C-alpha cells in the first residue's frame, strides 16, 4: 500500500544528501566562500527542500492520526450513513472484482440498499451504436459522431433519474459489458471506477458527455486503489466529481460514504493529488426507531 511515511523517509534522505553535496561542493570550489551569489542560490535550494520535508512530515502525521481515528471509530462513522440511499456503481471498463468488493463493503457498512452496477464496454462499439440509433426514428437526433457527447450525457442522466430510459432500453447491449440490478430506478448517488486505459477519439467524447450527465444529477464519487496506474484522479477532477484514491482502506471507505451522502466535495486520500486525507465527518442522525 502507498504510505507517505516511506515518502517522508526517502525525501529526508535526498534532502540530507543534497546538503552534504552542497557543503562539499562549496568547500572544494570556493574555499573562501567568496562567491556569495552562488552560495545564496544553494541556500535557497536547501530551504525549498526543507519546506518540502516539513510538509511531507506533517502529511504523514495527519495520515497516522486519521488511521488511528478510523481504527477506533470506523463502525460509528459508518453506521446508518447511507441508510435508505440508492447507489449505482459505474465501471468504465471491465469490472475489477477487488475494487467491486471494496465498494460493496463500504456501502454495506454504511447501510446503503443493494447497489446497481453497470460496466461500460470500452472502447465503445461505435458502428453497433449508430446502427441501433438509426433503427429508432425518435432517437435519430443522436446519430453521428458529432452527437456522441450528447448521447453520453443523456445516457448519464437516464442512468441516475431512472424513470424513462429510452436510450438504455435501446442501447444496453451495445453499451454495457456487464450489469447487476434492475434496469430502472432512481439513484441517490453514483460511484465511478475507471478500469480502462485513457481513451481518445469518439470514446473520449462519449465518456465526457456521460460524465457531464452523471455530474449534473446526483453526488458522484470517482474511486481507485492506491496502486492504480495510471491514476484517474485528474479525470475525476476534470469531470467535477469528488474522488477517493485509497478505497481499499478504511480511511477510503469512510471518505466514500461521507461523500455519497453529500459531504464536502473534494479529492481525498493519501496521494499528492488529494486535497485532504478525509472530508469532514459529520454525525449521522439515527433513524427514529433507534433514537428512543
Topology:
Elements: H1 4-29, H2 36-78, E1 87-92, H3 97-109, E2 116-120, H4 126-134, H5 148-161, H6 166-175, E3 176-180, E4 189-194, H7 201-215, E5 220-223, H8 233-238, E6 242-244, H9 250-260, E7 267-268
Parallel strand pairs: 1-2, 1-4, 4-5, 5-6, 6-7
Antiparallel strand pairs: 2-3
Helix pairs in contact: 1-2, 2-9, 3-9, 4-6, 5-7
Written account of the structure:
By secondary structure, the chain is an alpha/beta fold. The chain folds into two domains: 73 residues; 209 residues, Rossmann fold, CATH 3.40.50. 50% of the residues lie in helices and 11% in strands. It is built from nine helices and seven strands. A seven-stranded mixed sheet has the order 3-2-1-4-5-6-7. The mean pLDDT is 84.
Tell me the name of the CATH class of the largest domain: Alpha Beta
Structural class: alpha/beta
On the 0 to 100 scale, the average pLDDT is 84
Count of DSSP helices? Answer: 9
Largest sheet: 7 strands, mixed
Distance between the termini: 42 Å
What percent of residues are in strands?
Answer: 5-15%
Under CATH, the topology of the largest domain can be stated as: Rossmann fold
Low-confidence stretches: none
Rg for CA atoms: 24 Å
H and E string: HHEHEHHHEEHEHEHE
Shape: globular
Q: In order across it, which strands form the biggest sheet?
A: 3-2-1-4-5-6-7
Examine the secondary-structure arrangement and name the CATH architecture of the largest domain. 3-Layer(aba) Sandwich
Number of discrete domains: 2
Amino acid at each position: 500500500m502507498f504510505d507517505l511515511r516511506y515518502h517522508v523517509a526517502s525525501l529526508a534522505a535526498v534532502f540530507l544528501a543534497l546538503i552534504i553535496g552542497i557543503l562539499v561542493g562549496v568547500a572544494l570550489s570556493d574555499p573562501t566562500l567568496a562567491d556569495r551569489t552562488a552560495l545564496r542560490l544553494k541556500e535557497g535550494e536547501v530551504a525549498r527542500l526543507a519546506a518540502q520535508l516539513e510538509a511531507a512530515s506533517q502529511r504523514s502525521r495527519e495520515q497516522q492520526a486519521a488511521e488511528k481515528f478510523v481504527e477506533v471509530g470506523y463502525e460509528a462513522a459508518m453506521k446508518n450513513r447511507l441508510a435508505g440511499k440508492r447507489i449505482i456503481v459505474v465501471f468504465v471498463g471491465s469490472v475489477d472484482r477487488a475494487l467491486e468488493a471494496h465498494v460493496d463493503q463500504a456501502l454495506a457498512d454504511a447501510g446503503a440498499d443493494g447497489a446497481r452496477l453497470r460496466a461500460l464496454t470500452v472502447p465503445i462499439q461505435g458502428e453497433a451504436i449508430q446502427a441501433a440509433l438509426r433503427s429508432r426514428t425518435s432517437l435519430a437526433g443522436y446519430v453521428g459522431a458529432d452527437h456522441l457527447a450528447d448521447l453520453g450525457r443523456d445516457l448519464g442522466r437516464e442512468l441516475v433519474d431512472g424513470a424513462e430510459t429510452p436510450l438504455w432500453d435501446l442501447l444496453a447491449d451495445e453499451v454495457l459489458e456487464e450489469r447487476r440490478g434492475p434496469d430502472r430506478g432512481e439513484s441517490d448517488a453514483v460511484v465511478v471506477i475507471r478500469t480502462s486505459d485513457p481513451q481518445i477519439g469518439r470514446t473520449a467524447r462519449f465518456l465526457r458527455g456521460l460524465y457531464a450527465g452523471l455530474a449534473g444529477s446526483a453526488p458522484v464519487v470517482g474511486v481507485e486503489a492506491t496502486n492504480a496506474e495510471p491514476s484517474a484522479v485528474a479525470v475525476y477532477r476534470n469531470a467535477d466529481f469528488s474522488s477517493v484514491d485509497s478505497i481499499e482502506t478504511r480511511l477510503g471507505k469512510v471518505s466514500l460514504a461521507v461523500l455519497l451522502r453529500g459531504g464536502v466535495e473534494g479529492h481525498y486520500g493519501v496521494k499528492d493529488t488529494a486535497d485532504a486525507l478525509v472530508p469532514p465527518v459529520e454525525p449521522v442522525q439515527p433513524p427514529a426507531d433507534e433514537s428512543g
